[in-house]
Automatic annotation (TrEMBL):
This is Homoserine O-acetyltransferase. One of its GO terms (biological process) is L-methionine biosynthetic process from homoserine via O-succinyl-L-homoserine and cystathionine. Transfers an acetyl group from acetyl-CoA to L-homoserine, forming acetyl-L-homoserine. It is found in: Cytoplasm. InterPro entries: Class_I_gatase-like, HST_MetA, MetA_family. It comes from Clostridium gasigenes.
Length: 310
């Protein structure tokens, strides 16, 4: 079913070329249904790439999805044109009076910093607090997951000896859980981070459930029991070449970086990377939209205010 985005957004052309059903705003207005309202707080440096990646998977839903892109006011991206940001993005102040069925908070390349050292930390705290009464279900990705686990539950992040970088096998702890339903016994997902959260810290918090883990990458998917908060420590949304681009970027900067594991054939960075996670990404994003958002969010979106999260 369609995802509802402006025809001028770069993702419209990209997704249309992949035969993904995207609908322009004018056509969407003629359909007499309430779309899911999803906001994306895009903290990634390459915002257009992140848009393409996330919108690809948000198209996998039974009804229209209306997306609003959010940028931080306290920090302006240096890797995305100001014209693009001005045309397609909102500030939090612009949308905080609205209700949303779903919210996505992306990762960001700041995990080696203390949370309170991040320029937009105070702004992100305000967004996370606001989400408790104004969003039905929030999906946090990578650093966004670590930030939310720390803000909501005081769960710390810990530095790794070396970057968790590559595509790793994972298993599902509860095959009947809604967010992981349909995943293979062993499935793959990309990771790109310098820090981790630990199982023993999460297990101390009543109401949190570890749904998926990896022997190599550790805790992967965590959720509250009512699925109002989802935390994913990796990057299921990544495209084929995203890890490659990060690897080449770090090489060009002269940083010490290993070849991403289980990614290039024979670890040869001249080869085309292997995609092992696309099916799993479709399942997880589809499950979130279907089971955690669509089937449970109130039809009258204003009723979310009476369903305080924490």
């Amino acid at each position: 079913m369609p995802i509802k985005i402006p025809v001028e957004l770069p993702a419209f052309k990209v997704l249309s070329s992949e035969n993904i059903f995207v609908m322009n705003m004018e056509r969407a207005k003629t359909q007499d249904i309430r779309p899911l309202k999803i906001a994306i707080v895009n903290l990634m440096p390459k915002k257009i790439q992140a848009e393409n990646e996330l919108l690809r998977y948000l198209s996998n839903t039974p009804i229209q999805v209306e997306v609003k892109l959010i940028q931080t006011k306290s920090y302006t991206s240096q890797n995305t044109s100001l014209l693009h940001l001005k045309k397609f993005y909102n500030y939090f102040d612009d949308i905080k009076g609205e209700k949303f069925d779903g919210l996505i908070i992306t990762g960001a390349p700041v995990e080696q910093m203390n949370f309170d050292e991040v320029l937009y930390w105070d702004e992100l705290k305000e967004i996370m607090e606001w989400s408790k009464e104004n969003v039905f279900s929030t999906l946090h990705i990578c650093w966004g997951a670590q930030a939310a686990l720390y803000y909501h539950y005081g769960i710390e992040k810990y530095p790794l000896k070396e970057k968790m970088f590559g595509v790793f096998p994972h298993w599902v702890n509860n095959p009947n859980a809604d967010i992981t339903r349909g995943l293979d016994d062993i499935f793959y997902a990309p990771h790109s981070r310098h820090t981790e959260v630990k199982r023993e810290d999460i297990e101390k918090v009543e109401g949190l459930e570890i749904l998926s883990e990896s022997e190599d990458a550790g805790v992967f998917i965590v959720a509250t029991k009512e699925r109002r908060q989802i935390f994913i420590t990796g990057h299921l949304e990544y495209d084929r070449n995203t890890l490659r681009d990060e690897y080449l970027r770090d090489i060009e900067k002269g940083l010490k970086i290993n070849v991403p594991k289980n990614y290039f054939p024979n670890d040869n960075s001249d080869c085309t990377p292997m995609v092992r996670w696309r099916g799993s990404a479709n399942i997880v994003f589809g499950n979130w939209l279907n089971y955690c958002v669509y089937q449970n969010t109130p039809f009258n979106i204003n009723d979310i205010k009476n369903m305080t999260l924490i």
